[in-house]
Amino acid sequence: MNAATTPAADAAPTLITSAQRALRLLEAAARYPGGATAKQLARDTGLALGTTYHLLRTLVHDRYLERLDGRYLTGPAVSGLTGRETPVAGRERLTRLLTLLSDELSAAVYFSRYRHGEVELVASVPAPGAPLIDQRNYRSGAHAHSAGKTLLALMSAEERRSHLARHPMVPLTPYTLREPAHLPLLPRQGPQRATPITQYQEYVLGTAGAAVPIVAGYGIAAVSVSLPMAQAHRLAAIAAQLRTRLSDDFLAVAFGL
């Protein structure tokens, strides 16, 4: 019997160091609901920064982590280890992503989608100096706020007619669009490259907003921001930033709810 097959050798299996390190990074990242930087994770795990970056890239590629605004958060593949992500867990992760966007953009951020024939506000996060808009007319007033205008722009002509028949374009402010022909239209193919759709005091007086369209399969949704009119000069730059931040991981969370 040689040394490789002795009971003592079998009792001490070879440990894969890189796997151990990756698991330590996952455990460390899970302790930061708002995400952690690579330097924070390196410090918490005692790993060299270069090693940390190398492992983080692999974990992000395989969706065990996701990276947003320089911070690393647990990704959808982590939920897949124990089964399908629950709606509650998915919503919490979506809110976490919106919170990071809100902090970065200093604007209120919303995720809306069109489902079962209705415009649905799934989650929203305010920012200091940028409170959430009044949501009482959100579904019926889709023709007035930027997210709703974006969803209407992505619908087929038949879907749009059906929606507006159920929710007519009533004026919510003196600036509200009142004719379907005045609503913007967007192609379903490659909508992320489209110019963000904006509104200035069409939904609520004193508030401006912009939305970026997103499409996954047959699902349509929008991520939008709102600002007080005193900050409306920031809207175009914020919308441009927002368009660059929408990752595949974000879409996976959004449409998995």
Molecular structure report:
With 257 residues, the protein is α+β, with helices and mostly antiparallel strands. The protein has two domains: 3-80, Orthogonal Bundle (Arc Repressor Mutant, subunit A), CATH 1.10.10; 87-255, Beta-Lactamase (2-Layer Sandwich). It has helices at 7-10, 17-30, 38-45, 49-61, 76-80, 87-105, 146-154, 157-166, 235-245, 248-255; strands at 65-68, 71-74, 108-115, 118-125, 197-200, 207-216, 219-228. Strands 4-3-7-6-5 form a five-stranded antiparallel beta sheet, with helices on both faces. Helix 2 (17-30) crosses helix 3 (38-45). The longest helix is centred in the middle third of the chain and has 19 residues, at 87-105. The chain starts with 6 loop residues before the first helix and ends with a helix.
Task: Describe, in short, the structure shown.
By secondary structure, the chain is an alpha+beta fold. It has helices at residues 7-10, 17-30, 38-45, 49-61, 76-80, 87-105, 146-154, 157-166, 235-245, 248-255, and strands at 65-68, 71-74, 108-115, 118-125, 197-200, 207-216, 219-228.
